[in-house]
């Protein structure tokens, strides 16, 4: 019996009856020989961790556009925080920690430069629309590895596709990531907003402080315990109604004070215009796209507009600024 087979049998003996055991995965679109050491979900996690799109997350905006300071979250640090929270809950509920990890690490691979501002910019100009959720799936199914994709299991792709609030993941592991994405960003966005001077002690509504906690540690501890307590022994992941409402109230507060705050977002219009001008240029001049994107149009039959979105969405914040500068700013003006 291989190490992988031993692990699969161990999962069957110790996991919750509601866990997504590796042995019963729906599998991949393209059949592969199994690894003798790693389960299918461990392989998926490793493929995501080593792919180019994952590395680029380190230079993509979370909330604050190119902040001056080393401690603000990026899309990569957000992803790692989601993974940590999700693995904690999965372990407590005896669910598949490897599956949770793979979904969490891959859930934001399709995010644009400049966060949701970049996403909005592409959605406004691309005829078929644009969302980072569907782009994340497109990254793992097509764009990585020169148009072959990562060939991930169905369960990981389902979790990535359904990680936003309106999604309905088919596995409990995917449902955990869906909750942890919200838990992570609400807490680290408060921390970053305080660091930026947009929020200060006492700004968080009293009801939220009393219900969830007045520090990041207490908020995370409260929310994670609530999820574990109300999901244990259940065939779905849930929170108490009171805690769900408290999170909605806190999210509404963050939209008023941070996500729509003029000081935090005063550069976003510039970012939107820049992304849309890049889209217009490459849509008019597809011949200058890199070879891998030419291949998608020529060999895969992908529409030009979608491939242009693929190229721009894959850019980091600094790279998109560089391309814009090279294309639209006279050389003599560049510093």
Write a structural description:
This protein has 335 residues and is mainly α. It has one domain (3-333): Hypothetical protein af1432, CATH 1.10.3210. 62% of the residues lie in helices and 0% in strands. The protein has helices at residues 3-14, 40-50, 52-56, 75-92, 97-106, 115-125, 132-147, 154-161, 172-195, 206-211, 216-231, 241-259, 262-265, 268-284, 291-298, 304-313, 317-328. It is flat. It starts with a helix and ends in a 7-residue tail after the last helix.
Give a short synopsis of this structure.
The chain has 335 residues and is an all-alpha fold.
For the CA atoms, what is the radius of gyration?
21 Å
Return the structural class.
Answer: mainly alpha
- CATH level 4 superfamily: Hypothetical protein af1432
Number of helices: 17
How many separate domains make up the residues? 1
State the CATH class. Mainly Alpha
Mean pLDDT, to the nearest integer, reads 93
In whole angstroms, how far apart are the ends?
Answer: 63 Å
- What CATH calls the topology is Hypothetical protein af1432
In helices, the fraction of residues equals: 55-70%
Q: Count every beta strand, where a strand is a DSSP E run of 2 or more residues.
A: 0
Q: H/E order of the elements?
A: HHHHHHHHHHHHHHHHH
Low-confidence stretches: none
Largest sheet: none
- Tell me what portion of residues adopts beta-strand conformation: under 5%
* CATH architectural arrangement: Orthogonal Bundle
Overall 3D shape:
flat
């Amino acid at each position: 019996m291989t190490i992988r087979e031993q692990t699969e049998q161990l999962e069957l003996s110790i996991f919750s009856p509601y866990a997504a055991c590796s042995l019963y995965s729906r599998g991949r679109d393209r059949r592969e020989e199994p690894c003798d050491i790693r389960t299918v979900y461990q392989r998926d996690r490793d493929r995501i961790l080593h792919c180019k799109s994952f590395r680029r997350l380190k230079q993509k905006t979370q909330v604050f556009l190119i902040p001056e300071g080393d401690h603000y979250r990026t899309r990569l640090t957000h992803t790692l925080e989601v993974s940590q929270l999700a693995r904690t809950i999965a372990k407590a509920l005896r669910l598949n920690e490897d599956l949770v990890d793979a979904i969490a690490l891959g859930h934001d691979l399709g995010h644009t430069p400049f966060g949701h501002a970049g996403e909005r910019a592409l959605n406004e100009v691309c005829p078929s629309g644009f969302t980072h959720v569907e782009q994340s799936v497109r990254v793992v199914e097509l764009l990585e590895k020169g148009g072959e994709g990562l060939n991930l299991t169905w369960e990981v792709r389902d979790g990535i596709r359904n990680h936003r609030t309106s999604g309905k993941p088919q596995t409990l592991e995917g449902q955990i990531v869906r909750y942890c994405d919200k838990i992570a960003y609400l807490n680290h966005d408060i921390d970053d907003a305080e660091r930026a001077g947009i929020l200060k002690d006492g700004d968080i509504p009293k009801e939220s402080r009393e219900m969830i906690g007045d520090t990041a540690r207490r908020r995370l501890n409260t929310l994670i315990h609530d999820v574990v307590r109300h999901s244990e022994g259940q065939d779905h992941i849930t929170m108490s109604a009171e805690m769900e409402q408290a999170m909605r109230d806190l999210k509404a507060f963050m939209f008023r004070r941070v996500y729509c705050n003029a000081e935090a977002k005063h550069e976003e219009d510039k970012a939107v215009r820049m992304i849309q001008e890049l889209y217009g240029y490459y849509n008019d001049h597809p011949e200058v796209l890199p070879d891998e994107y030419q291949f998608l149009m020529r060999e895969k039959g992908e529409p030009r507009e979608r491939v242009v979105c693929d190229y721009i969405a894959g850019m980091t914040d600094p790279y998109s600024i560089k391309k814009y500068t090279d294309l639209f700013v006279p050389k003599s003006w560049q510093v």
